[in-house]
Amino acid sequence: MYRTHTCGELRISNAGQSVTLAGWVQRVRKMGSLNFIDLRDRYGITQLVADENESKEINDLVSTLGREYVIQATGIVTERQSKNNKIETGEIEIKLTGLKVLNKAVTPPFTIEENTDGGEDIRAQYRYLDLRRAPLKRALELRHRMAHEVRNYLSDIGFMEIETPYLIKSTPEGARDFVVPSRMNPGEFYALPQSPQTFKQLLMVAGYDRYFQIVRCFRDEDLRADRQPEFTQIDCEMSFVEREDVLNTFEGLAKALFKNVLGKEFTEPFPRMPYKDAMEYYGSDKPDIRFGMKMNTITDMVKGRGFAVLDDAEYVGAIVVPGCAGYTRKQLDELTEWVKRPQVGAKGLIYIKYNAEGIKSSIDKFYSADDLKAICEKIGAAEGDLVLVLSGAKRKMQTALGTLRLEMGSRLGLRDNSVYAPLWVYDFPLLEWDDETERFYAMHHPFTAPKPEDLDKFYSNKKEDLEQVNANAYDFVLNGTEVGGGSIRIHDSKVQERMFEVLGFSKEDAEYRFGFIINAFKYGAPPHGGIAFGFDRFCSLFGGQETIRDYIAFPKNNTGRDVMLDAPSRIDVAQMDELFIKSTAPEQE
Amino acid sequence: MYRTHTCGELRISNAGQSVTLAGWVQRVRKMGSLNFIDLRDRYGITQLVADENESKEINDLVSTLGREYVIQATGIVTERQSKNNKIETGEIEIKLTGLKVLNKAVTPPFTIEENTDGGEDIRAQYRYLDLRRAPLKRALELRHRMAHEVRNYLSDIGFMEIETPYLIKSTPEGARDFVVPSRMNPGEFYALPQSPQTFKQLLMVAGYDRYFQIVRCFRDEDLRADRQPEFTQIDCEMSFVEREDVLNTFEGLAKALFKNVLGKEFTEPFPRMPYKDAMEYYGSDKPDIRFGMKMNTITDMVKGRGFAVLDDAEYVGAIVVPGCAGYTRKQLDELTEWVKRPQVGAKGLIYIKYNAEGIKSSIDKFYSADDLKAICEKIGAAEGDLVLVLSGAKRKMQTALGTLRLEMGSRLGLRDNSVYAPLWVYDFPLLEWDDETERFYAMHHPFTAPKPEDLDKFYSNKKEDLEQVNANAYDFVLNGTEVGGGSIRIHDSKVQERMFEVLGFSKEDAEYRFGFIINAFKYGAPPHGGIAFGFDRFCSLFGGQETIRDYIAFPKNNTGRDVMLDAPSRIDVAQMDELFIKSTAPEQE
Prior knowledge:
- Chain A is of the alpha+beta class.
- Chain A is about 30% helix and about 25% strand.
- The first copy, chain A, folds into 4 domains: about 10-105, CATH 2.40.50.140; about 135-265 and about 535-575, Bira Bifunctional Protein, Domain 2 (BirA Bifunctional Protein, domain 2), CATH 3.30.930.10; about 290-410, Gyrase A, domain 2 (2-Layer Sandwich); about 420-475 and about 490-525, no CATH class.
- In chain A, helix 4 packs across helix 6 and helix 14 (about 495-500) packs antiparallel against helix 15 (about 505-520).
- The model of chain A has no long low-confidence stretch (mean pLDDT about 95).
- At the A-B interface, strand 1, helix 3, helix 4, strand 6 and strand 7 of A face strand 1, helix 3, helix 4, strand 6 and strand 7 of B.
- Strand 23 of chain A pairs antiparallel with strand 23 (about 580-585) of chain B, so a sheet runs across the interface.
């Protein structure tokens, strides 16, 4: 061992001990005859001090030290003259009796501090230096802690972690697969799993009634901000369960995480909300319920006053923004521009300012003060509140109003990242019609069971009927982010075959892609269901951050590149030949 | 919930309770008016009983049940007439009051029993049915338990589990990489990691001084028996450590596993053996020390008696096979044929039978009884023992004699799989010369540090010097199987550059492949080292089995195929087009 202690552990109670530390030079300061070194490791920072009057040798060596040098320091733990109560080791320092440079360091391209001067690109390229910074260290520590708690909790209640393969069969449905050419099977390819969905269901068929796995998944999608081609899931499945059993089990897991990782205790059940309500009141399938400001449908209340915009609208919705009746013309114009951005997509914004001195709105021409007051009262607006109204096609404007609600919540500081508001959303539509390909897609995935009461409609051939079939599916939503999603699965091979039929697969195609699972269901499949949590996202929310990238040790950028490794990269033609493939990409050099 | 209890939990103390179970029909038996059902789930088997005199409805349903039907059964826990002390629920049975078929099952293609009638191929195809069998369930339970113990042990002593990427850069050196074409970066490929070696070293540079990960690794090798293209490692790395620190830390882990998983306590330190001794005394770098029968070098003792075979031999070695002096001519002939098989590669076998009535050998013509007795005494053979001698080229015959030793150990029943003999082997050669490519290869991998005392030779340009450089490397060997391997790493970028030079990489090539790590070492790399354990193998040894396949939920066969999924498989040309690749494989249809 190069050290007797870490840089985070020595206290005043260790005074007088001779110790050896090893770590990185955070900084060196000279004060009179004294040289101070802040020595850093994963556990903290300890101050070292060398007195020029005592050892010339040590001080000569200190004068050669640069930032991020790796050193080994021996000395006596001593009470400090001027204590630093910002760090846990701040009451002591080490009076050096020995010093050794273990490795030199060239000057890093950015500062290794809580807040660095390095831009995103340079930090990505030198990820191993960025990872030395405290915020990233805290992020990875949190992630380790979360994973460990998940495993302990689930193992304690009888779940088995079972590893499923990463080299599987390509069955693209939804996102694209990454594929892996097989050298031993010319012309054939493995795929990397988008999730272990079929494997966990096979494990249920095999009788492993409580399975979980913290597992990597791969999706070759066009990367939007904060999406990674490889990401980690907490993947879970149970047999002989109904929806309530799954929700209660994983609500228990979430509560244990909140308590053990964040020290936050949830004694009440998490709220549960049908998808329909989520859309109606929050304009989103993942409502942020840290704040109210629920949406109100006022379509019927506003009709027949001769205002064509509202008379013709399929949907008119309103939110009450508390205490904002004093918004200026300029603020309201800015908000109007904001909702007209293509990302929101409204045609305009109607406001009603409910001031003590009276009601003022952008639709005074068509609606009397009494009309407006009636609306305000109906939707619970009080004096001092601002009412914002959007109108148009129902689904689109619900979503737009939901987006506006979130924006107003943010502007009013109602979305505090240290506040946690978990929520279950359930009863999603089973199918989504795609106009372009003229077929249904599974909203969740093709193994999700329709709700038993909707089975008649599921076997109907009418598009309207199929659109109304609800899935026995549920999402775990945290602070407006979908963190988990799952469902009760189909366990009847006939229902599964019908599902593939509804999705427009030919019998042959269904057999080729999913034959193994349709077949497995014939050998005694138990009723089962499960859930998968996005682990990267779960960690970032627990860390109070919006971005997942800091919670992944070696993430990729928006074009799927690891800029540190410079991957992906070209490979030798010989390597391709062995794999029976040829590149058709235009030559780059 | 479809059940109140599992099929493994009810005892006589539950008698009188009304319970609901769910599971698979193991078998149905009729005895008089009684129908018995063995109901199975992951936890055990519980006997259900239906009396024809009580409910015709239930009995009619029972008569429709087939093997592996999934049923839900309600009834009263009752003390059995004839108890079965072979199963934990054997004192009770459930008198049925209700029965429901949850899912039918077609007859499985093999029996779901401890020992099945199914062959390997059919079981692989129906892996989900094979996984229902108790031996596989025990294997996966053991694996889950092992992983959980590893995580708890390492987390408790400050190790962080950090996930490293699976889509990395291809840097083949040794085994072939699996590659993944990138759609977003035309003509470029990711590789799947053969191990997270470089990442864990970068984590050390980043200051995460105790890292581990239970992680999948990928090697596109020609599969030998019991090798998988994807396999799992317990991957570990530590900073500020020397060899002893690493060995002590992971000896602690191994001891905890032995104790907590197998109930076997090791109070003494594990034996440690230099590679040189392992080769000399066991003819193997992974000695099975469950039994003695150590090899003896007798080259000098046998020279000069005019027997050219031994006079000319570079090496003559002998083992003492206890109590086998009575071997017959036929047995000895068979052994001689055995050592002459190409897998062993000896030219012949010399024996000395040390009988009470005198010494008899196959070389009586050249050696007197006194000569032979002297040899016997020198190597510790006693009356009743058989001495077996091989001679020839040193390394080859050491290995052959080691193989013979193992064979004799097996024949004498000295290799009991419930006995565990762990061992550390250390001080391996750093480099291996390959005559074909006329270059050195790293025996471990190119990041392994040479031993400090061999640095002069490491900088020599003489092949003989380089061949003598020892690596600061070590293996963890269990019962003759290498379960773990690691080393102290190079942490000086100059030494690392020299290593690439010794391996014959041009500066450009080293920079292109490993530039990121050479560069990282310039920014303050701490001294570090680590180890990786083959987790599949570790589990199978703990399970007392030779084959790893039962310890992997969904393994691949010897041609790298998953026969259940039928993967790898052909993919659409459109899919290939998107990835900028073309198949050059001959058309198969």
